[in-house]
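Researcher: I'd like a structural prediction for the single chain below. Treat it as a standalone chain; there are no partners to consider.
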Amino acid sequence: MRNIVNISMGVAAAGLAVLALSSCGPRGNKPNVELIQDMMVTPAVKAQSYDADAPHHRGMRVPPEGTAPVGFEPYQYATDVEAASKNLKNPLAGKMDEETLIVGQKFYETNCALCHGYKGEGGEAAKSTISAKMALKPPAVVSDKVKGWTDGHLYHVITVGQGVMGPYASHIPQQYRWQVVNYIRFLEKQEAK
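Model: Treating it as a single chain, here is the predicted structure.
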């Protein structure tokens, strides 16, 4: 008799435990109780949002001074074209394989060809609606002047700009700029033929 009572109590306890555990799970896609507010779905903050408690009432905050995004490498030659020309070495120098040139061509035609021409001819020869309206015509990237530049000099001009040309560092990711340099060198070789 005592065994039957112990077994019955064990079965009842196991049944209650299963019932208790099954009642704690979520129903559908909603939790039973949200203990910490805004943990399941955080409110999105938009840059244009008005925030009465923030400085200048801006929704987005300015990053703390001296911080840098993960993976960001500051460009050390921002104002020194001579040092960039001398010290920057093209890790893809002479690499004219199809993969390198296709990536370089993609970024060149998207960002550079509008002013410098699809063949790098520049100025009036570029036959671009943009360069036609410019008072100071963009130079040919296949000119002797640009051919005389080092790859580091060309990389520097793409990164920080020169004269009336603005910087393209935000348009052409750092890992692809050398491929653009190689594509310009490819255009120079094509022009020489």
